What we know:
The chain has 186 residues and is mainly beta. It contains two helices and 14 strands. The relative contact order is 0.22.
Amino acid sequence: MKDSQSIPNSPQESTGSPRPGEPVFLVVGKLRRPHGVNGEIIMDVETDFPERIRRGKTIYVGEEHMPLIIKTIRPQNRARLLSFDGYNDCDQVGVLRNQMVYVKTKDIPPLPEGEYYYHQLMNLRVVDEQGQALGVLTDILKTGANDVYVVTSPDGAELLFPAIEDVLLGVDLDKQEIRVRPQEWS
């Protein structure tokens, strides 16, 4: 999933500690299988910011969020080859196979003004220009042209809003709200 979304004319706040309801950890990858005999493992990248995963950084692996320090990292096609302190051969690192890789939400840098990480937008109330509640943001679909916000209305219906300037009017994280202008279809 894409990590961030730019929304025009929206106030921005620093990331800092997670807001109530925000996740403590965010997925940045998935470990696949050992590579070679020196303790490297292939990681599928699940973030738009792979450059933030670098040597010396602490990542968290598996449902237990076991902290590991990245010893080496290098690209391999769209994946990355990682090694960790204390894991020196393929048998040691093999126990990490098929585990998700996380970073702490509080450790991610703030985005520029008007841009938000997806986790900040999920489950926000969506209202129209007059403040009438339309539902809650439950999913963000990636398409070729622009993202599409899936809003679940109180009656369970799904409303789709393209993430374009004419439709997305702003985000207020303090109010836990996204303002939209529903499109008129003729």
